[in-house]
Amino acid sequence: QVQLVESGGGLVQAGGSLRLSCAASGRTFIFNNYAMAWFRQAPGKEREFVAAISWSGGTAYYADSVKGRFTISRDNAENTVYLQMNSLKSEDTAVYYCAAKRTRTVVNGPPRGIDYWGQGTQVTVSS
Prior knowledge:
The chain has no helices and eleven strands. With 127 residues, it is mainly β. The strands form two sheets. Strands 2, 4, 5, 6, 9, 10 and 11 form a seven-stranded mixed sheet that branches. The chain has a four-stranded antiparallel sheet with strand order 1-3-8-7, with no helix packed on it.
């Protein structure tokens, strides 16, 4: 059974920073066979794509709304993906979900056909 466990969410003031982590585990789960991504869902809104990173970490893709403020990275030795969020805005308030997509291609857009989802972590930005 594959588990994606997010951590690092919380309450932060506008303009502040947070770093989310997502630890992947599973007896048959080979982390570097997967592109990893972050999505978010605000109250009353649909889940939306935030950022994705290829299996090697060599390519990344961001939603326009976070480009230049958020950075996705991964540590394949630790089976962990990160999302560094700077210059946070109130509109970044949402539940953030980690996602895994089995592919070894480059990342050039939001991944489709997600194989695994995490349970989510709340990020609240106060203005």
